[in-house]
User: Which sequence fits this backbone?
């Protein structure tokens, strides 16, 4: 037998349905308001006028660069809002500048951009273009008077690693003579030449170059003692010997006597 539904029960069901409908409508309204609120907030955050960058700080210890120079480089990219400024683009732009080694870009709340730049430290000149840094890496930067006293390596780019290796070995071997490598060259025919800090040029040829340099270190004191003139070149491209060329004697200039 079907259960009879009283008027009171129907009223209660209607009330519950109305409560559910109101709550559902309220939830929909809240969701819609939240969606609009999030959209409004995102638009505000992506507006360059929201929290504009007012200060750009460039930090670093510079010898070849300057903070003013780097400020000019990024001038067109450092304007914008705290959330909209493209720090990746600023990083890449600075990394393309000569003498820049590393770059770190940070946002500092609420309106500051802090940029830390590390400058390249050259230890060797490479040919007429660029340098070798303290990590043994080549980098491109203009050479000037401030770098003219650095030792120079010159040769095919593909031999850069081998030349760096031998540069270190040669200097280690030359320590006992009190001199160091001022210039290391590899010619187009793969012949090695070394100019020492005292001006002596060593011609080592293509083969057994480390053995030939060791021979020079052994005999140099004896050879140097043979004549008072400075040595110009030492040719070590012989199996068991060497050829020495001394610098010519300087002409003696007689004083000019004038009548009094």
Assistant:
């Amino acid at each position: 037998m079907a259960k009879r539904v009283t008027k009171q029960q129907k009223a209660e069901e209607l009330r519950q349905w109305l409560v559910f409908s109101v709550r559902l409508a309220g939830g929909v309204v809240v969701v819609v308001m939240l969606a609009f609120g999030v959209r409004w907030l995102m638009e505000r955050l992506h507006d360059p006028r929201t929290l504009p960058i007012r200060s750009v700080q460039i930090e670093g210890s510079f010898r070849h660069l300057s903070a003013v120079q780097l400020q000019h480089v990024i001038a067109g990219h450092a304007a914008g809002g705290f959330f909209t400024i493209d720090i990746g683009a600023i990083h890449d732009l600075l990394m393309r500048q000569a003498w820049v080694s590393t770059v770190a870009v940070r946002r500092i709340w609420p309106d500051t951009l802090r940029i830390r730049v590390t400058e390249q430290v050259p230890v060797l000149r490479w040919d007429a273009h660029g340098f070798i840094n303290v990590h043994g890496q080549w980098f491109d930067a203009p050479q000037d008077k401030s770098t003219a006293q650095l030792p120079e390596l010159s040769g095919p780019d593909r031999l850069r690693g081998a030349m760096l290796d031998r540069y270190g070995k040669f200097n280690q071997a030359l320590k006992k003579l009190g001199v160091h490598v001022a210039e290391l060259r590899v010619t187009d025919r793969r012949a090695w030449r070394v100019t020492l800090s005292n001006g002596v040029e060593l011609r080592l040829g293509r083969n057994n170059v480390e053995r030939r340099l060791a021979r020079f270190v052994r005999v140099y004191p004896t050879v140097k003692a043979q004549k008072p003139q400075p040595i110009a070149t030492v040719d070590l491209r012989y199996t068991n010997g060497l050829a020495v060329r001394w610098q010519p004697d300087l002409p003696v200039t007689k004083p000019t006597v004038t009548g009094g």
Remarks:
- The domain at 55-119 is CATH 3.10.20.310 (Ubiquitin-like (UB roll)).
- The two ends are 156 Å apart (CA to CA).
- Residues 44 and 50 are 6 Å apart (CA to CA).
- Residues 252-260 have pLDDT under 50 and may be disordered.
